[in-house]
Structure to design on (587 residues):
């Protein structure tokens, strides 16, 4: 009898410790925060001209707020609700990764096996020697070396079969060896949805409907365009594309439904009293992957989730999605079971997503005394001006393909003259210790500190990236090969127009211009015109008479892709870039 009493005593002490360790949210605190938060949202919607949005929010696993604000259809006078359905853009990737983790939980796949173990007919070309086969884990964390996307065919008026991905892939090239660098890739996630299809034996959408949406009671989630919600560009109703491949950008859902997905991860994989996803795969999903990769730097990526260690020792998990003009953001802290999902039908809403997260975090910081926790992050280094060696100057000098366009560095004494070609601005680069270069530009006659970049030589490649005030670094570009441009490319300069659009395509861009710039770099310029206008500036490193690489690793569409040049029997010059075939129309 005494033994049982001791057991109950220990259990009681453990329960007491658990209750004391977690400060449970009082009803009065919940109500006060909710009312204050709603006022905050309405104020910010007015400021940012947001037409409609829906929010689902919980703390300690308790529902705090599930509501709509503004209009889902302004002309029809239809108010947004907690169940308003929005195209969720890249948040669709979380549906795909959850499907993969479900298959893993059920013992049907091993995420550390090669992709071709399950999809044997997949192939992609490579410029790299050695191992070029990636695993499912590589794909889940965007470390597979797959290009961002294939621009042609990504946005469609009618759905296309996933099998088309295999046709698209076989003639394209990896941007890097697997496991080397983080490169966000819609294409890679769509390959995961094809994997779900192959392993389950049913169409991807059918698997998700039966194994994700239905078990989680996600009654407002489906594939394809939103049935009732309209999109708004700065308050004006605007059209969006109907379809893309289902895995990366194909889901329409509600804030309340997406909170059910989040709850799987804050509840350690449990759905009610059952283990829907295994504890191990959920823990894995919320941990940083490939931290020792050659170009990892401070990239925080789990299995599809963005992962950031907070200064208080907790973890912030995030995923954002854009399906122009619809925006969806998810933030949560798993240790506190605190989550917020915000879906909007307005392209002006990005700031309100971050503002709302900031509001929630401020409340959590005060309630849980988060500011008093010691930061696990590294101490920021103190950088001092340095004089580089002649060899270092020689290595750095040249042009770089980056996320802000082409940057050209030219030595001038102990500094660099810097040309920001995309913005037609010139500045000065001052070397500092730790591979840091501080960039200054002149505006209205005043010298302004524009940004900090870092440089490093990795396996013979000169890498450049952005350095943040926190000291963290993200790689964004690499040096453009300045060796002599082959005659075939010189002869091919001119203006090109897309010739392979079909009736199912949205026309992403019309024409591009291939030329040699003032720094003797082969360059492409043009405009993406749908779903929004984006100017592109791409430096090319020719690797043969017919192939050139767009150097760099970044979030932008074309980093690392291969451009192909052909002179056909009709005497015309043709370029292939990201699935689009261009024909020269003038020199």
């Amino acid at each position: 009898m005494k033994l049982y009493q001791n057991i109950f005593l220990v259990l009681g002490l453990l329960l007491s410790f658990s209750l004391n360790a977690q400060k449970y949210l009082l009803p009065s605190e919940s109500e006060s925060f909710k009312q204050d938060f709603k006022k905050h949202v309405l104020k910010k919607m007015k400021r940012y001209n947001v037409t409609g949005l829906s929010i689902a929010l919980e703390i300690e696993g308790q529902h705090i707020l599930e509501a709509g604000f503004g209009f889902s259809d302004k002309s029809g006078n239809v108010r947004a609700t907690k169940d308003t359905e929005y195209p969720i853009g890249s948040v669709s990737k979380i549906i795909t990764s959850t499907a993969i983790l479900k298959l893993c939980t059920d013992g049907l796949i091993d995420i550390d096996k090669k992709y071709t173990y399950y999809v044997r007919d997949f192939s992609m070309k490579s410029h790299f020697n050695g191992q070029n086969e990636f695993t499912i884990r590589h794909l889940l964390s965007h470390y597979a070396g797959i290009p961002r996307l294939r621009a042609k065919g990504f946005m469609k008026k009618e759905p296309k079969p996933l099998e088309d991905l295999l046709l698209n892939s076989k003639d394209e090239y990896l941007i890097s060896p697997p496991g080397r660098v983080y490169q966000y890739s819609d294409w890679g996630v769509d390959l995961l949805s094809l994997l779900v299809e192959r392993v389950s034996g049913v169409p991807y959408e059918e698997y998700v409907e039966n194994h994700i949406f239905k078990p989680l009671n996600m009654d407002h989630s489906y594939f394809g365009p939103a049935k009732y919600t309209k999109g708004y560009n700065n308050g004006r109703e605007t059209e969006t594309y109907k379809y893309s491949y289902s895995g990366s950008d194909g889901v329409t859902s509600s804030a309340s439904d997406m909170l059910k997905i989040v709850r799987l991860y804050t509840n350690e994989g449990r759905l009610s009293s059952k283990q829907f996803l295994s504890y191990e795969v959920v823990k894995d999903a919320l941990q940083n992957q490939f931290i020792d990769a050659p170009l990892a730097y401070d990239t925080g990526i789990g299995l599809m989730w963005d992962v950031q260690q907070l200064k208080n020792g907790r973890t912030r998990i995030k995923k954002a999605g854009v399906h122009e003009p619809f925006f969806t953001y998810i933030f949560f802290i798993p240790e506190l079971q605190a989550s917020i999902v915000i879906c909007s039908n307005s392209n002006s809403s990005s700031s309100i997503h971050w503002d709302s997260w900031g509001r929630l975090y401020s409340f959590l910081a005060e309630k849980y005394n988060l500011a008093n926790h010691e930061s696990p992050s590294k101490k920021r280094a103190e950088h001092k001006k340095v004089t580089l060696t002649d060899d270092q100057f020689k290595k750095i000098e040249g042009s770089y393909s980056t996320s802000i366009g082409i940057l050209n560095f030219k030595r001038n004494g102990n500094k660099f003259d810097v040309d920001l070609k995309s913005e037609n601005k010139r500045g000065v680069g001052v070397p500092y210790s730790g591979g840091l270069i501080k960039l200054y530009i002149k505006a209205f006659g005043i010298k302004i500190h524009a940004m900090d970049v870092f440089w490093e030589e990795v396996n013979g490649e000169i890498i450049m990236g952005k350095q943040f005030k926190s000291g963290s670094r993200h790689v964004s570009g690499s040096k453009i090969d300045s060796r002599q441009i082959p005659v075939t490319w010189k002869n091919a300069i001119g203006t090109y127009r897309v010739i392979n659009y079909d009736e199912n395509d949205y026309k992403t861009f019309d024409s591009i211009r291939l030329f040699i710039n003032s720094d003797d770099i082969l360059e492409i310029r043009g405009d993406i015109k749908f779903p929004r206008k984006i100017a592109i500036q791409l430096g090319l490193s020719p690797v043969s008479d017919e192939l050139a690489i767009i150097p760099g690793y970044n979030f932008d569409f074309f980093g690392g892709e291969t451009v192909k040049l052909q002179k056909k029997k009709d005497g015309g010059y043709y370029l292939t870039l990201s699935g689009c075939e261009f024909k020269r129309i003038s020199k």
